[in-house]
Specification:
The complex is a heterodimer.
Chain A lengths: L2 H26 L2 H27 L6 H16 L2 H7 L7 H5 L4 H23 L4 H21 L1 H4 L14 H19 L2 H11 L1 H6 L4 H27 L9 H14 L4 H17 L7 E2 L4 E2 L5 H16 L12 H9 L1
Antiparallel strand pairs in A: 1-2
Chain B lengths: L2 H32 L6 H17 L5 H24 L7 H23 L4 E2 L9 E4 L2 E4 H23 L1 H11 L1 H6 L4 H26 L2 E2 L5 H14 L4 H21 L7 H15 L12
Antiparallel strand pairs in B: 1-4, 2-3
Helix pairs in contact in B: 1-5, 1-6, 1-8, 1-9, 1-10, 2-3, 2-4, 2-8, 2-9, 3-8, 5-6, 5-8, 6-8, 9-10, 9-11, 10-11
The chains are: A mainly alpha, B mainly alpha.
Amino acid sequence: MNSAKRNFWLNLAALIVLFVVLFLFNSYGTEYQIRILNNMGIFITLAVSYNLVNGFCGVLHLGPNAFIAIGAYTSALLTMSPAEKQLNFIIEPLIWPLSVVQVPFLASLLAAGILATVFAYLISFPVFRVRGDYLAIVTLGFGEVVRVFCNALQSLTNGPLGLKGLAPHTNIWWTWGVAAITVILVARLINSSWGRAMKALREDETAARAMGVDPYRHLLLGFLVSAFFSGVAGGLLAHLITTISPTLFTFFLTFNLLIMIVVGGLGSTTGAVIGAALFAWGGEALRIVERPMDLGVFTIPGIPGMRMVVFSLILMIVIIFARRGVVGRNELNWNWLARGSRQ
Amino acid sequence: MDLTIFFQQLINGISLGSLYGLVAIGYTMVYGILRLINFAHGDLLMFAAYVAIYSIMFFALPWYVSFPLAIVATGLMGILLDRSAYKPLRNAPRISLLISAIGASFLLENLAVVIIGGVPKAFPRPPLFDKVIMFWGLHVQVLTIYTPVITLILLFGLLYIVFKTKIGKAMRAASKDFETTRLMGINLDRVIAVTFLLGSMLAAAGGIMWAMKYPQVNPFMGIFPGIKAFVAAVMGGIGNIIGAVIGGFLLGLGEVLIVALVPGLAQYRDAFAFVILILVLLFRPTGIMGEPITN
């Protein structure tokens, strides 16, 4: 059996194992466990797509929160029933075509992804004229602009009140299904000639250009694919927590994604998955530092905000002392495992 | 809009702009030497405001002791920031440095939440800055007039250091060519420390005036002034001190006047700076006073 054929069957087997594990959790797990798994699936989608730009294209993009917000609002506005919209928009009514349409969840997710991609395309012109720190600050600015607009466009987003009472469409199959599709598509992309060109641009843009790689086209593709999946994940997130408001999509969200991909290993899809899983689990595990601790004799009061201090410290320690993160730029794949077992 | 309101807004704009300018200087100096956006620079405003508050309220220091104390403490904090978050990454890729800066910014903000709590504190404004004077039918708080004056005094002091002293010469050399400066036997760690010291002290002065202008101090108060000051630094041409101040004035004036002329845009005020940033980068990436960027 040649290695390509073997890998196909092994991949299929891994997907089936994942399916069985999720099925068992979905049937016998507690609500809390299912909730963490849902978060994990969404974080994996977000981290893998974010890592495509930051890790593989090598540009520091700080605005995924904008695309998540666009996706969340688009999908939410498309799945809400007209009656619910009327209940929500009490200050100013929702503008016309949106106030009457209602589409299935899948269609709304696709629309979320597509609209996020359109916005990514529009912003790409100023973004890719610059590099490095400037690119970081322009994308960060775009994230802020989107948030300001979410707050101000009362008749489109319901302003600071946000949207409430969304149908809880998102379940474990949606979150992990989208996560699996994202991982497979991103992995295929980075192993294609486009992906190799992106890595070449990351290592040395001048040299890559000399070899005939067009930076704009390749970075743009990475940016658009990333925005698409961020938008879809935004839609999933909206229908998981069923309430969205502009405060959900601040730079803080981007910061969390940055922690995931840095801790996992910048420039590795495996790393992004590991980082996202660690974050979803660790975020819950760290809640104990904010909760009052009862030691029997006396009680240590909980410290609000401590979790964020720990997260910031983890980010800085990883970037200063262990810049490669958990896996560095290595990928987990069957060839690598097979080599390991033969040794 | 009649002329009185226009002049009133003009004064407000100049005052706000001078604060942006003061903070922008720190960004531009650090960027000039390390090519790093010091994301935590804005949080130094918050640090200075809290030091000033606590020294006034708990140690009952008069403002003319507590403000300089806060400025010096913030300057030292800037050096500490560089030593702990940026120095270990001098030879690392730029992206790592930037991520470390973002981490440092969140760390400062959330440490403030943990230590002080997230509830906003009122800033005890000294009576000297509280007076309102009236002329030509305008009501102006004296603080609004002091702010640009103090900014200009500090700017001239800084320009003296940068252009007339030995350490200033070393700073200019380091911003032209980091490696060659090192080869000339200049202690770059000292130059960088002085850069952070001066930039952070100016940010502290800005932070204290910001806290007197908007007397609500909270752990996240530095984010917006910080980001906008960075936009001002880019507008003026990054690396250029006078450019940063001019950029700050223009940004402050623009923000205030646009809202004054078109009140419907008030909600979009915080987006204005970024729209300007995108326009500057599209049409004149080197800023108003900048030199062409060489590859």
